[in-house]
Amino acid sequence: MIDPFGALGFPKRFDLDPTAVRTAHLRRTAVAHPDRLAEPLARAEAERVLAELNEARDLLLDDERRANALLAALGGAPPEADRSLPDGFLIEVLEIREWMEDALGSRDPARRTEVEAWADTRRRDYRAQVAACFERLIAAGDTVDAASHATDIRTLLNAWRYIERMIEQLA
Question: Which CATH architecture fits 4-61?
Answer without folding.
Answer: Orthogonal Bundle (1.10)
